[in-house]
Fold Hydroxyacylglutathione hydrolase.
Amino acid sequence: MLSVTPIPAFSDNYIWLLRQDTSPEVCVVDPGDATPVIELLEREGLTLSTVLITHHHQDHTGGLDELIKRYSPRVIGPDNDAIAGIDTPVTEGDEVRVMGRLFEVIAVPGHTLDHIAFFTAGIPPLLFGGDSLFSAGCGRLFEGDPAQMHASLGKLAALPDDTLVFAAHEYTLANLRFAQAADPHNPDVTQAMEECQRARELERPTLPTSLAREKRINPFLRVADAGVRQAASAHGDVDSDEATFATLRAWKDNF
């Protein structure tokens, strides 16, 4: 059985650790910092066999060099020469076997142009989406445009509803505060805020979330909803789903 454990890094990053049953070999996703990874591996007597990278930002790749020197793992990530250390470059539609599970690679440009997500359709389905889909939010558009990100989120929204979403940052409370403004009459947002506030008070992650839940609380997945469009209309064009998404993203950037 595959287990997933968060390794906190920096102020709000999660490096996800994947482990199969009692095997000492593990995989980590987006190790921006090697130190907390090494500390956990040494403490528990584990060996790093695989690293998954979703995009080139330093807070997702900064620990690669040290981890490669220490453990010589297989490194799977975007086909981007700017990321030193990737030995298995992958693109849309590729499949890789990691920790006994077959993962599909999904291209999700928007936050960056090289951004990919890793999805496995096991029980339960798992999605490691980096900075594409957050709980109640989505990544900023540093390189891509609204049309690209809207299309990328559409791909992810088409995955099974019971998919567990492992985002790379603990942004949920801030995202929910925006969701309360962008979707003000949504009781699911109110409930999610209460649940996530309790989790953070207990120093627990708000992740993973489920795709079904995100379809209820995430305004960036609810651009066709009349309430979301009405709230967004005060901030820009809402004549289409794509235009509503662009308006929401610009509003969120300045929220």
